[in-house]
Design brief:
- The protein is of the alpha/beta class.
- It folds into 3 domains: 2-22 and 96-201, Potassium Channel Kv1.1, Chain A (2-Layer Sandwich), CATH 3.30.710; 24-87, no CATH class; 211-261, no CATH class.
- It has helices at 58-65, 108-114, 116-122, 148-158, 171-184, 187-201, 211-223, 226-239, 258-261; strands at residues 2-7, 14-20, 29-30, 35-36, 80-81, 87-88, 100-106, 138-141.
- A 4-stranded mixed beta sheet has the order 1-7-2-8.
- This is BTB domain-containing protein.
């Protein structure tokens, strides 16, 4: 388990704990083993193995037969077909040993002013409102669903550290930020930067149902970007043949206008 301390405020009184799964456990590339797995093409844990290059390394095969793993990258694959016809079955799930944890030291005063959710948690009748006996700080552990770089960006904005806020972000990064802002309910603090980022990106929704279209919808609903909302939901209406997948993004049907909800269904 790896720990990372990020001092947003060096003498802050609150520690936000953000666990993040090790990407090496879920990666799609297994170049060392001679095979590549495209996880997006895996359906219900299965794959057409005719599309996967066979592993021929005898050390990998021998270790598979003895129940050990010669190359840690094999764990990243869903199932890899070996040249002897057997399959390598990697461990599933994020283990404690592979989990990376980020600690953000922040100011509760800044946080609760910007985030109604933080105020409810840190000043409410919960254990998070009591200083931790280990260090005297308030501890708030979040679910392992947020990108740590995006989370740091949001915290920099909340603490008015504008010089440490990036001037540009990618569409994926902006969607990651939107997910955090939506959860913390701190749109008012981040709206200005989100508008600048979106303008620089000159976002044009893709003409098909994919993760980028879902990102456009998420960003537009969280930050109230009317033009992007209209163009991305229109594209979703034109391209949808059933319930639109959200690709793990926190898009709520309630965030869409009633006229849009009547024309497209968001996958729950």
């Amino acid at each position: 388990m790896s720990h990372n301390l990020i001092d947003i405020v060096a003498d802050g009184d609150t520690l936000i704990i953000l666990p993040v799964g090790d990407s090496s456990d879920t990666g799609g590339s297994v170049s060392d083993a001679g095979a590549v797995v495209d996880e997006e093409s895996v359906v219900d844990g299965e794959k057409d193995w005719a599309d996967v290059e066979t592993i021929t390394d005898p050390k990998v095969i021998a270790n598979q037969e003895t129940g050990t793993t010669a190359n840690e990258s094999i764990r990243a694959a869903k199932r890899l077909k070996l040249s002897d016809g057997s399959h390598a079955e990697p461990e599933t799930g994020t283990t404690e040993a592979s989990q990376e944890i980020f600690h953000f030291r922040v100011s509760m005063r800044h946080l609760v002013l910007a985030s109604p959710r933080a105020k409810a948690v840190l000043q409410g009748p919960f254990k998070e409102s009591t200083p931790h006996e280990s260090d005297g700080l308030l501890h708030w552990q979040l679910a392992p669903i947020f990108d740590p770089t995006a989370f740091e960006t949001v915290m920099r904005i909340v603490h008015a550290q504008n010089k440490k806020v990036p001037e540009e972000v990618t569409l994926e990064q902006l969607a990651n930020i939107a997910a955090i802002v939506d959860d913390l309910q701190c749109q008012e603090s981040v709206d200005f930067f989100a508008s600048l980022w979106a303008k620089k990106l000159a976002i044009k929704p893709p003409e098909e149902i994919n993760v980028d279209l879902a990102r456009c919808i998420l960003i537009s609903t969280v930050f109230g970007l009317k033009g992007l909302y209209e163009s991305s939901t229109l594209q979703a209406i034109l391209s949808s043949t059933g319930a639109m997948p959200v690709f793990g993004l926190p898009i709520s049907p309630d965030a869409l206008g009633e006229d849009i909800r009547l024309q497209i269904a968001i996958e729950s």
